[in-house]
Amino acid sequence: MTIPTATYRIQFRNGMTFDRVVALVPYLQTLxxxxxxxxxxxxxxxxxxxxxxxxxxxxxxxxxxxxxxxxRLASTLQQAGMGLxxxxxxxxxxxxxxxxxxxxxxxxxxxxRYAHYFDIDPSRRxxxxxxxxxFAHVLANGEISIKPHPDTGHPALAYxxxxxxxxxxxxxxxxxxxxAMTSPAExxxxxxxxxxxxxxxxxxxxxxxxxxFFEITGLVGVRVEDEDVFQATHALxxxxxxxxxxxxxxxxxxxxLADPQAYVQRLRSATGPDCYITVEKxxxxxxHLPDEWPIAGTTGYEFxxxxxxxxxxxxxxxxxxxAYEAVTEERNDVAAGLRAARELMVDRNFEGEFKRLLTLATxxxxxxxxxxxxAELHVALRELLIAFPVYRTxxxxxxxxxAGETLLTEVLNKVKDSASPAALSFLQAILLGAxxxxxxxxxxxxxxxxxxxxGPLMAKSVEDTLFFRNHALLAVxxxxxxxxxxxxxxAQFHEEMRIRQLKQPDxxxxxxxxxxxxxxxxxxxxxxxxxxxxxxxxxxxxxxxxNQAHIVALKEGPAPEAAVEWMIYQALAGAWPTTLHHDDVExxxxxEQRFLPFMEKALREAKLRTDWGDSDEAYETAVLDYVRxxxxxxxxxxxxxxxxxxxxxxxxxxxxSLTQTLxxxxxxxxxxxYQGSERLDFxxxxxxxxxxxxxxxxxxxxxxxxxxFDNYQDWLSGALKxxxxxxxxxxxxxxxxxxxxxxxxxxxxxxxHQHNVIAFARQFNGRALLVIVPRLIFADGQWGNTHIAxxxxxxxxxxxxxxxxxxxxxxxVLQLDTATPLVLFSE
Length: 827
What we know:
By secondary structure, this protein is of the alpha/beta class. It has 28 helices and 29 strands. The strands form 8 sheets. The protein has an 8-stranded parallel beta sheet.
């Protein structure tokens, strides 16, 4: 297997095409990239901005250049000695009329050759939840009519621009009669005869008859566990791999599949041993990928979580939480907030999925003759789902593996006082497969659907609810992070890296993705709030006072409320460009254009006073107007104060930025550079983080120039970060085996500033790498009177300074002075 030395993530669509990437290949070579890491390239819905809403898995999207454009890119990469990794989407496709397979299911119902391709409940009519109201109201309003289908001419039911094919048995032999129907009663009767029914989008969470991706009804689950479906959905993917045009695959949302282990084993068998395969998988603290999965590792969210241990000041983090509580005037009980978010998801957002599980479990109860009712079962199932601490377990038809059994026992012990012991024991039996032969089928389906639900519940409860409700330190509200308060320690970071080298040395190490809540450099800056919580709290208090007149008193409370004010100032501090001045009208307007959509999304994701399905216009308007006031030229006093107060956080954040970047480049794993983040990435949550970077600026990289740490303008522009990336990535390309196989050794610093140093070594086959980078230097950027004692195997060597190229002789002690990053390599 060829392991990348560094990947570069490209977001296709939104103007990015294969030919444009072809033009970027020389730049990527200069940067030191070994593999382009492409977002989904298969045909997606018209005007898709991301490609995860695939409509044809066996066609490369013409919108980004089609097969010919792809061939040109693959050929260019091969000629440049580079590879290509594709992001593929095995879990779902678009539930769209543009999807020929889906449209065939609508037209022919259970008789469609594609009916078993999708995860549809066969006991019910297929729900199509795309109406603005329920069917009766929409019909009465004259929004439903009968028209010839634009492709076939056969009768179809039309709702605005959407045309749904009718089942043949409902019109064959009387085509003209059906086409002439205008009576609402006749149309309603015709609708009732279909294998599908049009419903309101608002009812989807209760009545949906197919498995969806998270809460997105426009994405339908695909049954890749079926061999025919696997072959049909992977025909082109496997052709591209076997042709040599594609070197690796990134598997989107692996936890959504019925049996992830069986899938990756089947995929590995189909691709052969040389394909580099990673999975999008969020690991909880202490959780590891199953050893049986024949893959390189994850896409790296746990790496971001590990970095927080290195860059957050645990000595002062409690002060920041107390300051937040002082502003909000209430205790910040994160555990209670997490439970409330999970309760909301189980009871409302995933109500339909929960009911299906309850129905299956109730069916097994009847067969097994257990002596408790549905009410007890409801409580037990609800408590089990709410308490589940990881994305999922990996039980299959054969039952639950030992790790899953152990986890399940731990969860059951946690909720034993909250539900009927008999009902909990029964659910345990279903999940472990300890039921009678008569119940095996329903128990197996329950086990699969339970495991397919725990992941979305976790993601939507934590990442898309709690993280938009709890604002104490936004930097830790990140995909893959532990939501409950915990200790941050450098020792824990080193332990995570040691385990990473042991468990998944070939996994991707990332710091920004298309799904992270904020760009890596915004996160690096916000980490510094943990170093100066009192200073930050004073600033927020002053800013709140300066802008108090623009808070609106609504019946439900002030808008924005105190917690949202705190969040606004912190999010704005993270997104503020390094060189943006308070009087730069054009620059501030550009920031406002990005910040307002972020605020709207943040308010709705919190689901407290407004929501995607039930928005409070008055509240949203008041909060957005508050933000507009903050950034208006009439608010010059605040803007000047804010810009001035931010400067020390900007400086410390830039140092954090280099630290996390250099760790990513040198620690175990394959570093990924998310498009544009080789300079500075202060993006907000999607879609802001999917904007196309300024490639003209990026291509000005002069990799040969020696990085100048004394030139603050290079820090501010990101040029220094980009130069350091190029230097280290070229070293990785020259020494691929070393970076893959070398061990990981923490190097404790000693002396006055020992807490302000992160140091580690990597050794393999007589070669050594020393990495020394700063941390927690908000108040003091010096390393004086600090040193690192080297072991015998590392001492008395000549090291090459990777940034300057100079050769340095080191005895058994490395003395440190200014807090300047060092990467030293000895051959």
